[in-house]
Structures are given as C-alpha cells and as structure tokens.
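User: For a reading group we're discussing how well predicted structures match intuition. Take WG repeat-containing protein. Before you show the prediction, I'll give you the sequence so everyone sees exactly what went in.
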Amino acid sequence: MFRFVYFVTVASLGSVICLPAAASAARAIRHLPVDTLHADALGPFKGDFAEIRVAGKSRYVHRSGKVVVDKPVRYGAPVCIAVTDGAYGAINSKGDVIADFIYDDIRYEYADKGHPGTDEGYHYFLAIVQLDGKVGAIDTLGQTVAESVYDDLRPVNAHVLAARKAGKWGVLSLIDGREILPFTYDDLTRRYVPDGYLEVTAAGKKGLRSPDGKREVMPAVYDDLMGIRLDSGPLLLGEQGNDIFLLDTLGKRLTMEQYDRMSADSPLVRIERGGKAGWLAADGSVRIPPVYEDAANWVDGLCVISQNGKKGVLADDGQLIVPCQYSDIKILDDRGRPAISGSIIIDGPPMIPGSPSKSSGRRNDKETTGGDLYFMAREAGKYNLFDRAGKKLLPMEYDGIQFGNTGARSCLYIVAGERYGLADLQGKELLPVSYRFPMGGYSANVSGTGPASIIRIPDGESIGLYDLERKRLLLPPEYEQLEWQLGRFIKATSGRGDGNAIADPVSAYFRADGSPLIPPTESLLVHAVDTDRYVVTTRNDGYWSTTLFDADGKQLYHHPQWDFSPYRLSKQLVPDSISRLLLDPPFQGGLLKVGAEKNLFVDRQGKEVRFEGFDFVDDFFGGLAAASRNVDGKALIGIIDSAGNVVLPLEYSGMDKIYNGEMRKVRRNDNVGVIDLRGRVILEAAYEAVDYLEQPALFQVRLNGKAGLVGLDGATVLPTEYDHIRLISDSLLRVEKDGKFGLVSSMGEVLAMPRYEEVRLNESYAGYFPARVKVAGRWTYVQADGTELPVSAGDKLGY
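Assistant: Thanks. Here is the predicted 3D structure of WG repeat-containing protein, as structure tokens, for the group to look at:
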C-alpha cells in the first residue's frame, strides 16, 4: 500500500523523505550510514519532531530519524499526525508510516486504560483517515481496520466501531472490520452506564445492546435512557412519554408507580414527587416514601432531611434518628470533620470565633469517613451534639461546640458566652466552662512535641496542658510559654511584673506527667539531655556551673566550671537526617561531654570518664566519637568507641560532613577518601577530590587529574580516565576526554563514546534524546543508546 522513497540528497522539497535505519556497529559507537539526508541546520527536538533546515526551508524530522515532513500537526501519542504537500499522513512511535501522506484529514480516536503512553496502555488507538469525504480507520501497526468508504466512524469500545453509511449507522468489528450490525440505525453511541454498552436509536426511539453488539438488551422503544450508578452497581432509567421508570441492566422494569424524578443516591434511588423526596431500594421497592421537603447525600446510612422547614437525621431504614426541629444539622466524624462516603471535603464545621484549636475540616485525597459519627445541631444560635444513635450528649445547649484533636484522641470545646470548657465525646465534662479565649484566637506559645494525648488549654493570654488519656489537668493555664524538651520534660515560663518594668522570666520544670521537678526560678537554664536526664546551669561568683539530674530530680553529678549549652555540641558523627530535625539528645552512648575539662565525660550514673592519650574527643553518638591526637605538630583524626578503643585509625588530617549523605570525607595529606558513620572505609584517602552526587547516589572522584565515578559501596562505576564529568539528570552524565564529549548512564554504561566536539541535549520536558552532536565539523542526532540518525548538517538552529 505504501511507497517509500529513499534520498541521498534532497531533490524535491515537496516529498515525504523516508530515511533508512541507522546501521549497527560496535557497542556505543554507531556511525552515520552511507545514505544520509544532508541538511543546512538541525534544531532541537520538541516532542516527537525537530525542525531542520533543508535548502533554506524548514522541515521536521521524526525522532526515529526515518521520516521528514513539512509540518507536524499532532504528536506525543502512539501516533503522530503530520502534513506534507498539503496532505495528511500518520507515523507510529517506531517511525513507521502507517498512513501514507495522501489524506485530506486525520484525527485520533482512542480509549486508554488509565496509564496511556504506550500501545499497551490503550484499549484501542486508531488513526481515523479522511479522503474525498469518506473516512476509514488504521491501527498503530498500519493495519486497515476499516476502509475509507464510510461517512463517519466512531469507536464505541474495545470490541466494535460504529460506522455511518448512506445516513444510517451500523457496527463493525474493531479487529477485522467485518460488519456486525447492518446499517439500519439513526444513531449509535457508547453508554458509560452500563459501561461499554451500545445505545442504538431507531425511529426516534432508544434501545440497548451488549458491548459486542450481538445481543439486544433492550429494544429501541424508549424516548430516552439514562444510566445511574448505585453502590451495588448500575441501573437504568427509561422514559416513555411522561412516564419514567427504573430498569435493571437486563432491561427488566423494576417500578410501576410514577415519580417526577429519579436519581442515584449512593446505595438508594432518590425519588421525587410533588416536591417531596423519598428513596427506593436497588430492586425498585419503596424504602422511604417521598414525604421530605429536602435531603442531603447519604453518609454511612444516615441523611440530613427537612420537614416543615426544620432539619433532622434519617436512617436508611426510615427511622428518624434526630427529630426535625433544628435550623441546621451537620454530620461529623470523630475528628470534627464533615463526614463523607467519598473522598473530597470542602466545608468544615462551624468555627468558633477565637477558638483555641481550629479544625479545617479537610482531609487527604481518598481518605474517607471512619470511626463514630456525630450530629451537630443548631437552633436559635445554640448548639448541641448527638451520637449516632440520636442520643443528646450535652446537658444544655451551648453558644458554640468545637472538636479539639491531638494524636488519635478528640475532645469538645464547649462555649457559653465568652468562656469555654472541655468535654469528652460522650458529653462528660472534663473542665468547667470558665476559661477565656485568647485575644485574636491565638494562644500563648507551646514549642516542641509532647505525648499524643496532651492538648493545650489557653486562658486568655496564658496557657496550660490537659491529658485526654488520663482525663486530668496536667498544668493549669497560668504560663506565658511552655517548652517540651525531648517529649519527657516541660519548661513552663512566666514573666514577673515589677511596676511598669518586666523583670527576669520565672520558669518551673515538670515531668511529662505534670509532676514538679524544679520550683519557679528566675532565669532558669535547664535542658533535657536524655529522655530521663536533665542538666541545670547556674552562675555563681562570675562562674557558670552545671549539675546533672535524673528524672526523679536526684543530683548525679556537678562540676563548678561546666557551662553547658546544647548549641556547642559538635556531633561530627550524628547523621544529617537526625541533626536536621534536632531530635538527638546529647547524652549518647552512655556518655555526656563535660566541657569544663579536656576530654572529660560523665556517664549515666554520674561517674567521670576521661579519655587519656587523645588531644580531643568529640560528642558521642551511637557509641562512637571522632577523636584526634597531635603528632609532630599535626592533629590526626580518627574514631573511637566509648571504651576508648580505636575504631578508625587516627591518621587523617581532616574530617568533613557530606551534607545530604550519611558519610564523612576524610583527608590524608592532600588526598581525600570517604568513611561511613561507623568508621568503615568506603573510599581510601587516595583521591585528589571526591564529590557526592545525591541523585544518582554516586561519588565523582578525581585521580591523577582524571575524573571517574564510584558507587557508595566503593565499586568503580566509571574509570578515572575523563577530563570532566557533568551531571545532567539523575540517570545521565556528560563526559569529556581529550576535548571531545560523550554520554554515560548513572550505571556506568557508555551511551556515546567521547568523540563529539559538542553535545546539545533537548530540554528535559521533551526528553534529552535524540540529542544534537557535532562530529568532524558536522551536526547530527544521537539516540540514548548511541545510535546516530541518518541526518547531517553543517550548522545548528538556535543557541
């Protein structure tokens, strides 16, 4: 059917140029074939085509290198549509011309499987071709599905193709184009409920056929058909004259009684008659008669309905859970969010002005309602809460009710006038309505993270804590600032007024359960150094001293010249993933560094530990610390354990963090190596330079002036024989050797040997390849596997 013309030089610009495939050669070096299109200049690929200049005119080459056209029309799919000499043609993703450039027009018709992009990602993908007013269909392999003899074509599903001829529609097989249904219908379209079925129209009446078109499901006797989806599956609504009734997918009529409207409503069919709403079961039986003025969507078998202008809550068995006597009702989950059966939340519950804990009512995509349900009811500006069974939970109506959440627990802020209190989700009072909202709705500061059951309790500009698990007030709301330390201790601070001046702040210290450790003290300097240890630093006679305590407040150790500060810790061996989050306690490996003396530490029992024979020992982490010793006036660094044993020999002149990598560079004289945080040598200190590439995770090393790549396991990925290596993407690098450029993958595979004078990649959105390369003074294209396209030019287009 198709004619291919091969060119060595361009004889006529009014032709489609079909280029031969590139010849194979040795791995990673594939030279241009003898038959090459010689152009003036080459441009970058922008999608499936690149502009080239031939005899002063713009043409476009397909990324396969097989076809050159006048103008691409549509691309980025398994089939590209292009124009040459004013005629349309089609090219598949392999560069094969599947529809000759002879057509008046071509369009796509396809149905994807949810992950399009390849031929396998589609139920079907067709090029619908038009010639002399007639249309046909060709698949991605170039096979003719339907000859160009039809007035119109319309793919219906993965089985059949609707075709129109002489004003009538019939059905063709999508596999071989044979006729399945004769051309007798006025219209023929796809139904999405039930999915893939054929809706046929004859003499103005509609019917339904099976997806393959062979079986009649419903005769063409209906004025209209509409599909609806229930939780249990699809149904159909049929219309004849003024009658509307429910049908199953086999065409059986399920209702005889007439209604004004019907629609899907989750598990039920909503019906309306005379302005009143009710519901049918999926089998057409009346579940709830149409007696309600209005109704919201069903949520887990519950629905807010209206009667006589008032709202209530109805169960799907027809029982009235909450009577219709409220101006507004919202169904909420146990976090105070609007309860849903689907996946999207827009509106939250009514917000209380100045409330101490506001829930946005939003949830993540695909997160559905779970746990208990509650009904927030409002009448005359007052609120109350009902449980799922319709029991009123609170003893009175309040001016506002707001859910408060912490961790996996929830509570209720109940508001009366300008004050609020706390209740649990069973309505039991936890704190009386006696606390003031903070001005502007912002409470005093609480920093750090405590146990998941603890919730903040503001009172005006003061703050306290309440434990929802133990149902007791942890700290009364009388502090200006609360600071959780390592989740186990609380520093509570208040200013102290002295006339118009503010004196030093006063702080107290508590355990996580609220029990006191240190009474209110001016300018208290206290820091948790472990989950059961803390230190207090005080100033006496111009000197700072620090004392170590256990979680019971027992003094374990004191040094009169120890000025402790968590910000002076070195932490050379702390992983970045931990140090960035500031979660690591300084008491590590059973030892805490005492900065008052050289290499002095204290253990968990308060006993001093000294490391003799070292000039410096860093803070410990995971039982290890960096240490150094002076040898001939030079500090040599290594790693020791908490017993003083050498884990990494002290023979390195420097140790530096590799940020975003849990490793350290070590230097020996002028050479560089890499170790992990346990002291294991990954790269010997034998390289002139080492740079960590996070994506891909590799080391770029330099040895004897040459660059190479090494994996995190120390294995060579690319030998050190290149002048330069430049990271282009997480899977591609450009290499330079002897002034020539090439390309390698992050796995070390040489994609294109360094033989090019220049390499110009496409923008990443278009795919880096085919890339433009210059060799022997001329430009061509190279694919990601190193194959060169049969196109050559003396210049490039653009920068």
